[in-house]
Amino acid sequence: MIRHVAIALLALSTCITASARAEPVIVDLSENFVAITAGFTGTEVLLFGTTEGYGEVVVVIEGPKEEISVRRKEKVAGIWINGQQVDFKEAPAFYQVLSTSSLDEWLPLSVREKYQIGVEYLDLQPREEIGAAEAAEYRAALIRNKQRIGHYGQVENRLKTIGGRLFRSSVYFPANVPVGIYEVRTYLVEKGKIVSTRTMPLTINKIGIEADVFRVAHQHSALYGIAAIVIAVMAGLGGNALFRKG
Amino acid sequence: MFLYLPIAELSVNVFVILGLGIGVGTLSGIFGVGGGFLMTPLLIFLGIPPAVAVGTEANQIVASSVSGVLAHWRRGNVDFKMGSVLLVGGVVGSTFGVWLFKLLRELGQIDLVIMLSYVVFLGIIGSLMLVESIRAMQRARSPARRRKLHQHNFLHGLPFKMRFRKSKLYISVLLPLLIGVFVGVLSAIMGVGGGFVMVPAMIYLLGMPTSVVVGTSLFQIIFVTANATFLQATFNQTVDVVLAILLLIGAVIGAQVGTRLGSKLRGEQLRGLLALMVLTVCGKIVFDLLVTPDDMFILATGGGH
Hints:
Order of helices and strands of chain A: HEEEEEEEHEHEEEEHH
Structural class of chain B: mainly alpha
Shape of chain A: flat
Largest interface: A-B, 58 and 59 residues
Distance between the termini of chain A: 49 Å
Strand content of chain A: 35-45%
Number of domains of chain A: 2
Largest sheet of chain A: 5 strands, mixed
Mean pLDDT of chain B: 83
Oligomer: heterodimer
Strand order of the largest sheet of chain A: 2-12-11-4-7
Largest sheet of chain B: 2 strands, antiparallel
């Protein structure tokens, strides 16, 4: 982590001195590919950047869109079962907002709504025709559950600023992180308006044996099933032979 | 040490899973049950998605049953003829079970059905076994009375009779076939070998001698769970081989230990012990179903709903 920061700061300082044309905001990630390997237990990616010394910075990290179903639990004959279901199409699988200070103070609601900055401003539309109050309840449930498993962020003002120009923060991707292509959008805000935007991709994917197993299981399911049985039979025979000798 | 499971899509502590495998494998060897009835709920308690727990457990039981049956075979405790009849029924049943599993998964009710099945079957079987073993222990103290080989009832009037020499039985094949189908369905839906239903059914319904029951049960479980594994992998993609390998390393070791232990312990006490274990797991699931959830909503991702 310290090494990452050092490299980042070094890269930034060269950036600032060498850059002939001044960019209002420059931002980068310590990695733009997160590999999910056998030993993956979650990872931190460092986000860092610099401004020209004016404005506030807000960064949105958004995962691929997917359909998420929210089910309400109902008590039937004393037992909790899955009852009514509401589907949200196009919900981000992952969503975090980082900002230099509390957003409420300098980012107007209209801007937050337009650019979907903050979980409460996400454009989540239920597929089913339900009342507004009910829809709000299901939306809140979706966000709350996503926050609990670490897919949606809870605190926003986590960007540390250094000397009024440099900013950095670590972004944590938990072990259960959804795979796909993420988008990291950085906005420079001055006087309540977005004056500059930077967008960059971040790819999170399985690699190595884990990826192969997943691919074979989904593309060659029958073969995968047979292989699973063969492995099990061999293990059973092997284990028995081993113990018989011993 | 943590390992990422590619199908379950989460990372688990390797030693926890290995320990589970050894523990449940030991029980499996002692009692001649696949051990799935304990392992599947425990995996679910650990956070493995229920559908993946069920599919993967079927795969692991193939290994523990192969390992277990060899020890019984060497002692001549497998009735292959009876086993074959049971497994024909079992293959039919597990095929139907996987189809039902897929349907329930699409309806979003598979978790509930898995849990309720556990409550019903573990509750009934556990209570019956407990009562039976208490009675047996009481009988052992009082002067011994000569028992008949088995009771004759209406089941012996059914057609298509067949002779099973090893089991010393001359009964209709319809009954073992039906038992096989029923246990096959359970096997697919609950991620179990079905030994906990099969063993009592063999003793009480078929009237098989206790000595061949465990070996014969293990023999047919191999084929039924192999069929379930294949179909779960093909239709539901819920078999996690990485998790299965971890579990079966533990299970194969445990099964050997268990088989040795089993021959040194007394039957009725064993049965009483298993009954208590079955009822404990059952009680925990009932508790989970009744307790008010922390959040009144749950999420499900992806299509198929």
